[in-house]
Amino acid sequence: MKMRILVPSSIIDVTDEIQACLSLAKQQGFDIDNIELGVSSTQLVELVSLHGATTIFSDIISTDLYDANYLLRYQERTFQDSHIKRDNVVHLSIEDQGVSLDVWRHPSNSEVRALSSERPITEAQRINHFAWVIALLALDFPIEDCLTLARAQLNVSRETWASEYSLFPIPVLEHSMLGIVTDWNFEGSVTPNNTLAFGLLSKESLGLYPVVDDIAWIERLLALGVNTIQLRIKNSQQSDLEQQIVQAIELGKQYQAQVFINDYWQLAIEHGAFGVHLGQEDINESNLDALAQANVRLGLSTHGYYELLRITQINPSYIALGHIFPTTTKQMPSLPQGLVRLKLYQQLIDTIPYGDDIGFPTVAIGGIDLTNANQVWQCGVSSLAVVRAITLSNDPKSVVDAFAKVIPPVQTTESIAEVTL
Fold first, then answer.
1. What CATH code would you report for 203-415?
2. What pLDDT band is residue 186 in, cutting at 50, 70 and 90?
3. Do residues 319 and 361 lie in contact, with contact meaning Cβ atoms separated by under 8 Å?
4. Where are the alpha helices (DSSP H) in 188-260?
C-alpha cells in the first residue's frame, strides 16, 4: 500500500533526516519502496495512505499550535497536571527528579504512559528524534514503539539500528503525579539474593510449544515427546475447567514436562502448576507476588518494544513475541509483527540480563506452521508456539516430527535452573 510522507516547507530539511531513517530501516529488511516523500501544503506533517491521513505537528515547526493526531512538544521542561489531559499531546524531555520523561496518553484507552531516560533530548537532537517518530509511524509502529525506539536511536550513530538494552529508555511503572499505576500487586521482582523471583528456564528446554484447548490434546502431545505445552481454555464458564487444569498439571508431572496454564492463575497456584502464561491485559488482574511465592514460572505476551521493555522489569520466565503472522485463533490488538521486527526484538532481548545470564528465553507465536517455521527459528527465538498447525492436522505425530527437524532436541526439565528464594 502506497504511503506518502508530506513535510511542511518550513522544515523541509527534516525530509533528509526521514530519508536517512528509512534507508537504515531498509537495511534491517523493512520494505520502504511504497513510501514517498513530498511537501505538505500545511504546517502539519501528513502520512497519507489509502486508509486516510495521520497528521503530526510539533513546536519544532511553529510556535502556533495546530490540531493533529499527534502533537509533539519538545520545548517544555516542566509540566503541570493539566498538561497531560489532551489525548493527542506527547510531552518530550520533561525534567523530573534527575531523569528525562517522555509522557503521552495511549490512543485506545487514554492511559497515561511515560518513558524514563537518563539524558534530555538536546536542541540539536530534536530534528533527528522527530524524523524517527515520523519514519516509524510510516512503518506502522504504534506510537509507544515510535517513542521508545526514537529515544534509543539518539544514543547510536546514524548508521546504526539500536539493539543494546542500555541504549533504550525504561517504561515508567509508577508515578503518582502522572497517575501511572501498574496495579501488578508485586512488591519486588528481585529477591534479597539478587535472583529472579520467577523460576528461570533453560532456553533449550522449551522447543516446540503447542497451545491447545483440551486435556485430550495435552495427553496426546506429551506422549509424543512434547516437553512444553499450554492449556488455553477461552471459556471461563466451561463446566470442567478446573478438572481440565488439574489433569493438565498432573500430566505435566507424570511426563516431567513444562505445562503452562493460560490465564487461570488462581487455579494454577491452588493445584501446583509448573507455569502460567498471561497476556498484557491479564497482568493487572493477577497477583504476581502470589505467583512468585508459589514458585510458578511466568510467561508473558508482548507486541513490541515498549511492552517487552515494560515487562522485563518484573523478570518473567520467558517472553512471548507475537503475533508474527495473521492468525484467526484470537482477536489481536496489534498488527502482525512479521519476521523483520521479530529479529529486531530478539536482538534487543539478547542483551537484557536474565538471572546470571544474558537474554530471556523467547517464544514466537502467531500463524506459525511448517511453511514458515524455519524462517521464524532463524530469527533467534528459543521456541515456536503453534496452534492450528497441530490441532487441524490429520496426523499430529508427523507434524511434531517435522518440527523436530527445525528445532533442536530439547533438554528435559532437569536442566531448568531453580531460584533460591
1. 3.20.20.70
2. low
3. yes
4. 215-223, 241-255
